[in-house]
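Notes continue from the previous slide.

Worked example: a multi-chain complex. Inputs as given:
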Amino acid sequence: MINMQNIQKIYRTEHVETHALSGFNLNIGSGEFVSLMGPSGSGKTTLLNVAGLLDAFDGGSYILDGEDVSRLNDRQMSRIRNEKIGFIFQSFNLIPDLNVFDNVDVPLRYRGLAAGARRERIEEALEIVGLTSRISHYPAQLSGGQQQRVAVARAVVGTPKLILADEPTGNLDSAMANEIMDLLEKINDLGTTVVIVTHDPELATRSPRQIYLLDGRLVDLEKDERPAPLYNPVENGTADNGMSA
Amino acid sequence: MELGPIFRALMYNKSRFWLITLEVALTLAIVANCVNLLLDTRREFLRDTGLDEPNLLVISTTPFDDAFDEDDFVHALEEEDLRRLRSTPGVVDAMAIQQIPLSGGGSATGRRPIDAPPESEGTGMPYFRVSDHALQTLGVELTAGRDFAEGDFEEREEGSENELGRNVILTQAAADALFPDGGAVGQQIQNSGGEIVDVVVGVVRKMHNSWPRSEFAANGEVVMLKPGSPGSAERMRYMVRSEPGAIDSLYTEVEALMLQTQSGRVVDVQTLTEYKEDYYSDALVMIKMLTSVVVLLLVVTALGIVGLTSFSVTQRTRQIGTRRALGATRTDIVRYFLIENWMITGIGIVIGIVLTYGLNYALVQYADVPTIEWTFLIGGALAMWLTGILAAVAPALRASTVAPEIATRSV
Amino acid sequence: MLAYQIRIAFKSLRRNPLQSGLLIAGVALGIAISTSFVTTYYMLSGDPIPEKSDRLFHVAVDSWDPDNGWDSDHPEYAPNQLTYTDVRGLMQSDLPTYQSAAFKAAMTVQPEAENEKPYREIVRMAFSDFFPMFNVPFQYGTGWSRSADEGPDPVVVIDAETNRKLFGGEDSVGRTLRLDNRDYTVVGVLDEWRPTIHFYDVNNNPFEEPEAIYLPFNFVEPLELQSSGNDSGWKFYAGNEFQDFLQSESVWLQLWVQLDDRRQQEEYKSFLDAYVMEQKKAGRFQRPLNNRIYPVMEWLEREEVTPDQAKVMLIIGALFLIVCSVNLIGILLGKFLARAPEVGVRRALGASRTSVFMQHLVECELIGALGGALGLGLSVLVLRVINRWFDNQFQFQLDLTMVLAATLLALAAGFIAGVYPSWRICRVAPATYLKIQ
Ligand SMILES: Nc1ncnc2c1ncn2[C@@H]1O[C@H](COP(=O)(O)OP(=O)(O)OP(=O)(O)O)[C@@H](O)[C@H]1O
Ligand SMILES: [Mg+2]
């Protein structure tokens, strides 16, 4: 799914050059569930931005889902984000002016689907996160956990192949956090690749593969300490509840 | 594309929505009414006077020499002046006249057909006493009957019957007012007491009298030209029709020419256009004031829209980043803000149209302004629409530069 | 407390100078346009002689055509001027404190200096009472005496401009002025006198300047002077002589009287009625008895002196200010709400709702005050431009009332525009912005 070679990202400000990603290789296979850990400032968000085409990188190559994404223009990148990637953010990033339905609708709108098809997908997605009853609430009328569940629904509604989550549980209590993790696992079970940044080792242990970043360098724990995945995600991915890609 | 959510998001932020809407509506109402008023005034100012306006020069002379007290002296001088004016290079023709058309100052009397019952109300009749060559000098077009002939200018014997009656020429509007069924040429017309009886010998297509701004006398189009010697010991006036392009040089030459003939008088030279501009001066100033207000208002409103849209972009930076992360292209973002703005301006325009009519109604009641025409509404609406779009472009473009990675930044 | 709040408000304005500049400029523009338009209206319609306008009366008697009234839209109106015969008759009264018939004529001024060209000038023919009745200010000398009216004595009053032109601006009392080949002795030189409305004669341009030269009315007969204003007639008269005109039913003269109290006014009205009844016996005045004396403002209203354009400008000016205020609300709302997180923290730290509200309102008022001050300065410029457009025919200027009104208006605009945004910001919940986003 993600194939990075010698990936580099350098932030230049007036006085300092920060090597946020200092040239490493990373491979994440289709259907994997990966936790990304590391101290603050180690480059986790940067890696996620690069992986999600939210930010350009400065060196190396990146092949996403078999497609070289090093030299794409903005329109092409937008399309890939829209169709292949779902994002979940630490601060939810729901659009405050829109109600739950319209929030989940946003990525579908940019895909230009017909109204009927959109409605069906939105309702399905909300069902997965269990918020069908809050469909016309505004974000300000929801709890943090509920908001993040809407964000999850929004991330999966377009049936992306890859979900990137940057500390999705950072603003939630542990019960809520577990619930979100349950959801992500459920989605992963359906075949979607999930990469999640977390500071919580407890949560991280729930994922089959953990990657550590340290000062822009990669330490892949899977290779060192953990056994290879016990199942073949692709085989298990043909699911029963309509979430197939 | 996404009209529904844009509209619903708008309604969630009502205050911003209503402020722009209100501003647009008010601006439209004011601009449409101002434009209506100023175009109406302009049209009034520019309407066809029937005269060869751009080429006409007015010479006003006021005597102070006692010699002018003799009528014969005045008449002889008038003839001499006209002879010299007509032989000046660049002059098409010249005439003597006692009042100036389009100037706001003139003479009026009343006339009615001779066979009309005595108690019937006559027609208010602005008139000009003119020398020969009047039609040629004024540039008015004879449409029926004949021009003045030599005998028409002769004074009638003092004490003779109908001493003051003359062969006169009317404008079409005057002829229509007196003889609605046509056939004015050859008819006799008289004043209310019946002491003066004139005969209509000709009709000209159009000529404005001294008060074209007034409703009186069919908006200034009723005129009677009465032959005679208009000069007096008080004042002698001439109109000179120049060849195209010669008016400027004549303007500077004729004063010396007049004083050379007779120096016991004060000579004042102006173009007919100057008289007209003087007569319309307050209206012309109003055009300037209204134009400035319209421009300023559009600028203020445009700035207001820029301000409010910029603010909304700033406030929604994070949401824009999120949208970008979720797959919106830059174009999508620009489109979002433009559509939002069109909606606000659109609703503002709809409300503005109602307000425009309201304001126009109030103005019609309070001050005598014309009823607004729907073309101005369309024009005003388009102007507002355009202002709205232009004002939203810069903030919308700025919105499109928000980077998608904003979404992952912690606050 | 207020001083502290003003200081904070200043700081807040300085934080974003561009935005604050726009806000202040917006108020200034609104104030400048509305004040100058209102000033224009106010000067075109205001009382030209407030100290005694209710004691000065225009006299109207209905000498018009028995068959057709003077104004078909207003059958109750008598003609707007008087005949020579009636002026002669009415001037016999000794009831008014002051009274003067008048009209304007044009004469040629022949300067003494050889190289100066003769020029035409508008002359007002009036009685000696004209000057005290209309509070006409003098720079040198005075008006002529009542006995000079009778002569008539060859005396003349000139305005300051003419005095500058002909006598270099010095005290010219006693000097000679030559008009239409006759010599007159200067007895008075007017001080600058420019009532906005030419209220004592609104027949032609009601906003023209006062006349440059004043001569005793009774020269009308020896000089055979015709009016350079309007004359209107309804009845044909035979003869070409000047006397024929004087005795005709043409109306071409204005008559003003000063009547100081109710009793005097009633008596004068009875006098008018008695005069007209007497004339009826002689076969004149065949219309119903319709005599009126109009105080200045009523007369200006009847003659519809205020131009429609001025009324339009008044409304447009007011609306312009409203648009500027709406604009102001919008920008203030943006400015304040952008500050919501900070205010949320302040609220959490104990700032009361009232103090937040007041703080922001003070800031709005500061913008209003600064904008108002700038706007006043700007309106002086705008008025100068308007004056230039009118060829300096008028001298529109701010007066104290307008300055006060503009100041109040600016503060009111600041207040009205500020209330809603201040209310919105003071309602920010202390907790909301402590949470992330
Ligand atoms: N826009 C930027 N400009 C300059 N430097 C940046 C920028 N964004 C990130 N950095 C730097 O890059 C490094 C990596 O930042 P990053 O946000 O990826 O860290 P992180 O691992 O997500 O940390 P945290 O766990 O605190 O979120 C940091 O040293 C940071 O200062
Ligand atoms: Mg981070």
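Summary box: Chain A has nine helices and ten strands. The beta strands of chain A are 2-12, 17-28, 33-37, 59-64, 67-68, 85-88, 162-166, 193-197, 209-214, 217-220.
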